[in-house]
Design goal:
This protein is an alpha/beta fold. It contains six helices and six strands; from the N terminus they run βααββαβαβαβα. α4 links the parallel β4 and β5. This is Cysteine hydrolase.
């Protein structure tokens, strides 16, 4: 896939621990293996804050309610899950809000590498995947969502997003369909 990158978003210990789908990480690992074999760059996007959370405010319902120290360098829950551990050549982007673009240098890294097609995966479908998809579409990126490479705490929300909302702005396929197309 020319000018494409696989984004693996918010697959961190403190977030993966809330995923009830035991098959999620093995599916995501298949996507990573397919991308790496095909030479598609893999980028990891994580939520991260400085000590004391100076980037957050109590006006933000999601991030203002985080316990002190959550998703900081000292928090073991902020680490990328070992099943999808980045290789040394893979970029790790730290974001400060829900979208992978918000408070990060993602767009700069993508432009520098000539990437114009994003393949989206991550936790949660209704969070980072939705927010990143919307912003990326507004920035004119070509988009593919790996439907089963995303997961959400609410299966019905995941279904509606992947079957009805995302197809308006992205190609939506399974990990196996995408991996087969790369082979």
């Amino acid at each position: 896939m020319k000018n494409a990158a696989l984004l693996v978003m918010d697959v961190q210990h403190g977030i993966v621990s809330r995923v009830p789908d035991a098959d999620y990480l093995p599916r995501l690992t298949r996507a990573l293996d397919a991308a790496r074999t095909a030479g598609v760059p893999v980028m990891h996007v994580v939520i991260g804050f400085r000590s004391g959370h100076p980037e957050t405010t109590d006006r933000n319902k999601a991030f203002g309610a985080l316990p002190p120290g959550a998703f900081t360098a000292e928090d073991p829950g902020a680490a990328i899950h070992p099943d999808v551990e980045p290789r040394p050549e893979e970029v790790v982007i730290t974001k400060r809000r829900v979208s992978a673009f918000a408070g990060s240098d993602l767009e700069l890294v993508l432009r520098a590498r000539g990437i114009d097609h994003l393949i989206l995966t991550g936790i949660a479908t209704s969070g980072v995947v939705l927010s990143t998809l919307r912003q990326a579409a507004d920035l004119d990126y070509r988009l593919t969502v790996l439907a089963d490479g995303c997961v959400d705490p609410d299966p019905e929300v995941h279904r509606v997003l992947t079957e009805k909302v995302f197809p308006r702005q992205a190609d939506v396929v399974t990990v196996d369909e995408w991996a087969s197309a790369l082979a």
